[in-house]
């Protein structure tokens, strides 16, 4: 392939970001003069990785040629033919996978040739957070689990505030689809009831959260309840208020 200094290919945008499972359309522009002769048009799209080059799509003399297409892209890639006459090579990829991320090489050969590179980033937000609660002896165990990409940190909040004294056991594993499966386990003592939230936060500071209100009841203490009947000013009995202390419950007249 001979690169011409007169025939110039340009990118519509150098970087694309898309969500796992969605679709993306990337493109580059090329000069067509007044009309396009499809029989002279050749287009090549490749994914360039550090250790491998995958053929994504190929158009030879105006005709689609999928004979050398990498199996990773089979059934998921099309070229938007209606855009060719306008001088656009638009590559459409469906059902995006984590492994679709990387550098893409757009080559256009139309009497002369030129090429450009485009970067594609794939992200899978931690949208579905599963939160479970179980009891283990006197403690309550909260578990937050979610899948996403890239790898995220799990932060635990108590009463909507981050608490440095909360220590959870967080682990992760890589799934067959390239997502990170993250599990964070928090042990709550009976003396710490309240509203607990787990937040999955990735390196771009994007985050999703789930929360669970846990009302824990500790051991019942020996309670001393004293009821006193004191007539009020109007001769009616006052209704005593109940006040809880650490070691007993007592009756206090208001």
Automatic annotation (TrEMBL):
It comes from Thamnophis sirtalis. GO terms for cellular component: external side of plasma membrane. It is a single-pass type I membrane protein. PROSITE patterns: IG_LIKE. This is Programmed cell death 1 ligand 1-like. GO terms for biological process: cell surface receptor signaling pathway; cellular response to lipopolysaccharide; immune response; negative regulation of T cell proliferation; positive regulation of T cell proliferation; T cell costimulation. The keyword Disulfide bond applies. The keyword Membrane applies. Keywords: Cell membrane, Disulfide bond, Glycoprotein, Immunoglobulin domain, Membrane, Receptor, Signal, Transmembrane, Transmembrane helix. Residues 7-123, 125-215 form the Ig-like domain. It is found in: Cell membrane. It holds the Pfam family V-set.
């Amino acid at each position: 392939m001979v690169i011409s200094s007169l025939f110039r290919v340009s990118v519509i945008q150098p970087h694309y970001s898309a969500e796992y499972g969605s679709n993306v359309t990337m493109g580059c522009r090329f000069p067509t003069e007044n009309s396009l002769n499809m029989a002279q048009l050749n287009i090549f799209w490749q994914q360039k990785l550090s250790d491998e080059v995958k053929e994504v799509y190929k158009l030879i003399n105006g005709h689609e040629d999928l004979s050398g297409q990498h199996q990773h892209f089979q059934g998921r890639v099309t070229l938007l033919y209606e855009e060719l006459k306008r001088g656009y090579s638009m590559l459409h990829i469906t059902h995006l996978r984590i492994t679709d991320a990387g550098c893409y090489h757009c080559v256009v050969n139309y009497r002369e040739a030129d090429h450009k590179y485009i970067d594609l980033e794939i992200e899978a937000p931690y949208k579905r957070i599963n939160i479970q609660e179980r009891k283990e002896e006197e403690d309550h165990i909260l578990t937050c689990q979610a899948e996403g990409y890239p790898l995220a940190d799990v932060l635990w909040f108590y009463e909507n505030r981050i608490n440095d004294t909360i220590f959870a056991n967080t682990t992760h594993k890589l799934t067959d689809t390239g997502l990170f499966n993250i599990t964070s386990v928090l042990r709550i003592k009976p003396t710490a009831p309240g509203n607990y939230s787990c937040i999955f936060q990735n390196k771009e500071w994007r985050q999703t959260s789930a929360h669970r209100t846990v009302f824990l009841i500790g051991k019942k203490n020996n309670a001393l309840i004293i009821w006193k009947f004191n007539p009020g000013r109007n001769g009616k009995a006052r209704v005593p208020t109940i006040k809880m202390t650490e070691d007993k419950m007592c009756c206090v007249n208001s």
